[in-house]
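Case study.
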Amino acid sequence: MKFDKPETTNPIDQLKVVGQPVNRVDGPLKVTGAATYAYEWHDPHARLAYGYPVGSTIAKGRIASMDLSRARTAPGVVAIVTAKEAGQLGKGSRNTATLLGGPEVEHYHQAIAVVVAETFEQARAAAALVHVTYEEAEGRFDLTAEKDGLGPTESDVKVGEFETAFAEAAVRLDETYTTPDQSHAMMEPHASLAAWDGDKLTIWTSNQMIAWSVGDVAKTLKIPPANVRVISPYIGGGFGSKLFVRSDMILAALGSRAAGRPVKIALPRPFLMNNTTHRPATIQRIRIGAGRDGRITAIAHEGWSGNLPDGDPENAVDQTKLLYAGAHRLTGNRLATLDLPEGNAMRAPGEAPGLMALEIAMDEMAERLGLDPIEFRVINDTQVDPGNPARPFSHRQLVECLRVGAGRFGWAARDARPGTARDGRWLKGIGVAAGFRNNLTMKSGARVRLDRRGVVTVETDMTDIGTGSYTIIAQTAAEMMGLPIERISVRLGDSSFPVSAGSGGQWGANSATAGVYAACVKLRETVAQRLGFNSKDAVFADGEVRSGDRRVSLAQAASDGELVVEDTIEFGNLKKTHQQSTFAAHFVEVAVDAATAETRVRRMLSVCAAGRILNPKTARSQVIGAMTMGVGGALMEELAVDTRRGFFVNHDLAGYEVPVHADIPHQEVIFLDEVDPMSSPMKAKGVGELGLCGVGAAVANAVYNATGIRVRSYPITLDKLITQLPGAS
Amino acid sequence: MRAFTYERATSPVQAAAAAAANPDAKFIAGGTNLLDLMKLEIETPAHLIDVNGLGLDTIEATSEGGLRIGALVRNTDLAADERVRRDYGVLSRAILAGASGQLRNRATTAGNLLQRTRCPYFYDTAQPCNKRQPGSGCSAIGGFSRQLGIVGTSEACIATNPSDMAVAMRVLDATVETVKPDATTRRIPVAEFHRLPGDTPQIETVLERGEFITAVTLPAPVGGKHLYRKVRDRASYAFALVSVAAVIQQDGTGRIAVGGVAHKPWRVEAAESELPRGAKVAAERLLAGATPTHENAFKVPLVERTLGSVLDEARS
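After joint prediction, the assembly is written out as follows.
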């Protein structure tokens, strides 16, 4: 099905099931432990062996020697694979560094061997016996040191004459902000079980993008994609770190080939930080010029980030092309080559760190203009792409988000003068920030089956990374086929199913359900035809198909055998003619200890405008999780770079702190009632990343309101406040 | 983790003798720290002596009016003990400020005193660390040192002792009771129990080979307000950047000990005489000679301000 015209009315609009706060259909499996995660597959695999990775202990250089003799003779060892044993490997199209390094070493904890043994403990013990010597090379590990040589590039996006307009602006801001390297720090580490059957490989894993994985596993191992099957029905969090094939898949496959047995491997926790990917640190310079009326005339956002050779920049400037009005604009990324581990997507790549900076800048600018921060944003709202005014937003309710939120949060009671609100030993402050994230759509396919019991089974390689994909897909099929949700069975995360959008970039929910919608449209036609209805008149409801006086049970259509159809939604030009984005307003109240400068969040509200909300319960869970991640980014998360040795030092969950329950207070989420007929037949958009975008700045602005201290370097830890706080009593 | 042999101790003296007989042996009680370190091969004992079956899990009154806490009393039970909560509130509060409920259920009194530093370089076996591998150097000096020590440090090591409980024990003048392999016993004031790193940071306590902790005793209650303030980047489940244990009397005199700043709970009795003059003077005395790094210099004002806040609270 091609989606290239704004959607009119369709069966989803009934909202009997879609749009309802349906409980997760996979909830009981998960709370009873019956959902099988990657490392938990056991039963089908006799003679399972265990792999354990060996990581490089230098950041850059060359392996001089590798002594495997002690490891080979250690108890239980079945096989050891290094680059030498693995032979010539290809490289996937989505990983920057090779996943099995050697003799060249590209980053710290790059995998350089996998040890396979009878038990996990034996594999781990033997891995520690692999003795490696290196020829260490000098690396570049310090973004700040590399920044100076990096100026404007040809890919800078210019609208009007920024420099002139900025110079002439009555009120100006020119500030630099930094965000640190961050780790996804999801609960479930990367894990894979690989098994070969002749030249066919099956990998049970934890991955967000099944078809990408098939392609990159095939490319890396130099085998046909048709010989690779990837299965990933349950995923314990990914946040982008599992978008791509990582070393666990490749090491399990190579280990299994060498051992002649199925091999299971989970990456040890420190590997999450230094072996897989992370969100790269940024340095962001923002310049805003405005008239005394508060209208922005010039806005520039430049971002510096680093990555391995051939890696991408962290695109922190992208939202600044679209979020606010202004005739003269400049945005650009400057990329340094760094020899730190690979930087790559983490939840809301680009916008998350970009808004952490931009939305502080907006707060600062509002203050310089003597404007309320909400009013300043309202004045500069735009309903069209500022770089191309002929191109409107499909639907943009940023102002409504801000207004509704202000009312609900009690914004009017805020004293704009910093450091004025006090509660005992706590300094109180309130902050606001806009949230923005583009609505991406991706081609997505599904297969639907109707059996003689009247049960509809949906099969798609879509993944559920804890987001609720199973549930919203079941809701979609139930709505389309006129069935109660209990009569829908959803099977996900298997490359033998049709290729879906997968989970990433907050495109999953809208795109994947649209794919299921397309398949269900086809199934309805098939059913109608089979039962002798005119498909245009047929009504699907209560397990029946009706037209006029005639009603037949849906199951009847499959009485002669299962009906199976498949379709794919493809998105046409609407995203070119219309800018599709999602919007939010985030409100945060913090308290800062007047003595110790510890910041604790007291309440949070996010108001989201993101098209139709397919399931308010799972969407709310998405947003409160994102808000929590926003608090982490604002107050504590930072991968500490050792710029001498080139690695992230705090490489475990004790050292890399993310919020715990005690850090997270009352959270409220409001979804504006919205449908966007430009986005898909579902009229929905993404929301899972929107909930993060801007939260950090709302926290930072609240800290400023509480203390009068403007911290432009995340995370806002107490050491950045303590020397500027008023003296101890 | 390397392979190891295992035995269950039958008595404290037998445990001590068994440990003395095998230079690669370690006692294991709650295992909340040791097992993690073994998995990472930071600790590589060849033999474990499980002391969990030895009893030593009761809290009894002493004839001096204090308490004798068995070495194997779990942190949860110690913090919840009615006498501890009434007469030694700082101890209960310090314990509850540490770790998580699950860990406190397993962790023991003696084990808590013996837990090892959380310096991130100690935890990465690929990096030089004088504590883990004597003579290899200190990566933390000149590296990521935000969490690390500011006072009593050495050229060889700037690690901190991570315990909350030990800070309270120090302010309460607790005594560590031990038995040696030859069945002799000794009483070690907690002030002398932990060592400064000097040039042997791998030696963290004054315990001799095989010497086994049987109990920790608290002297008779001293009254006063008992406070424990732990300052950290998140609200729970984090090690202290700085912590202050305080017992403050109505007249403004009292005792203070500080955690998160040194290789041992940091208490300077001479600084306590300055308490009536306020936090600034007392903190200056407490941290005299401090040598913070660029990254942890904030701990100096943080100690002063936290102490000030604690004194405010004591007065209120």
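Observations recorded in class. Chain B touches chain A through 39 residues (CB under 8 Å). The two ends of chain B are 51 Å apart (CA to CA). We will return to this complex in the next lecture.
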